[in-house]
Each structure stands twice: as C-alpha cells, then as structure tokens.
Design brief:
Elements: H1 29-35, H2 39-56, H3 73-86, H4 89-108, H5 114-121, H6 139-151, H7 155-162
Helix pairs in contact: 1-4, 2-4, 3-4, 6-7
C-alpha cells in the first residue's frame, strides 16, 4: 500500500536551491540541534531527522539540507500521522522530539517566529501500546522440537534437548 493510500499527503516541502546564500555562517538547524545532544543521543536523533526529512521532501532532502523553516502545520501533522502508522508510540514520540528540537533551532536562528513555532509543534503525543513482540515458540512447537531432539539417539540429541 502506498503512502497516498494511507492518507499521507505527498506535498513535499520545496527544496532551497543549492547555491542559495544562507545569509549567515550559522550551522543548519539540524546540525545546531544535534550538536547540543550527548554523543549517545546524537546518532539516534540524526537517524530520526533523516527519516523525517526524507518523508517531508519525498526523498529529495536529508536532515541537513531540508528547509525546516518552511514546515507548516499540515506537514508536521502528516509526519506525526505517518510516524504513528509505522512506529511504536515511544519511537514515534522520540522522532517528534527531534522535529521539535530542529524547529526550536529555527526559532532561535530567527527563521520562524515564536507563534509559528508553537503552531507547527502543537501536536499531542502519540498514545497507544507498543506492538508486543513474539515471545518465541508456542508450547506445542517447543514440545515438538524437544521430541525430535530426544528421538536422536546420538549425544547431540541429548545436548540439543538440554539447550
């Protein structure tokens, strides 16, 4: 099922021309956000931002070249919806925290106003239970494997049954 069939609107954010002057020597908002994180969080949040940038730009931008300041509420809401449809709630909320962090950097750099920042980030956290992981073998499968091991007359049968 394609993203459009799930209700994901494919209205990507326009990509800034590569030769457009930045007007300052500040790092892009993604870099500024990631630099304030500890080393352990940096990789996780970089991956989250890359995923969000890929989705927001229909695959044309990464975290460091997406014009984050152009995001509107429709974009952040669509990203939240897509995250909720594809990730466990805790993971989706972590991605949303990364998005808010980058947008906060946009606010601090003066590329979006405080009011606009609040508007595009004013989304409720994703709720729900994480899908339960399979607990492994069902009891009947375990019993069948044990019987096969015990039916092996060699030493490996007893060893395998013990394992």
């Amino acid at each position: 099922m394609s993203g459009d069939e799930k209700g994901w609107k494919r209205r990507p954010i326009a990509q800034a021309p590569p030769d457009a002057p930045s007007g300052n020597d500040r790092p892009d908002p993604a870099t500024a956000y990631l630099e304030q994180l500890g080393p352990g969080s940096r990789r996780t949040m970089r991956e989250a931002l890359d995923k969000l940038a890929d989705w927001a730009s229909a695959g044309r931008c990464g975290a460091h070249d997406l014009p984050w300041h152009l995001l509107e509420l429709e974009h952040t809401a669509a990203l939240r919806t897509r995250l909720g449809a594809t990730l466990a709630p805790a993971t989706a909320n972590k991605h949303m925290a990364a998005l808010r962090g980058v947008l906060k950097q946009c606010r601090l750099q003066g590329t979006i106003t405080e009011e606009r920042f609040r508007r595009v980030t004013d989304l409720p956290p994703l709720r729900g239970e994480s899908p339960r992981r399979s607990s492994g073998l069902r009891a009947e499968d375990f019993e069948r494997l044990t019987r096969v091991c015990l039916d092996d007359a060699g030493p490996s049968g007893v060893r395998d049954a013990a394992l």
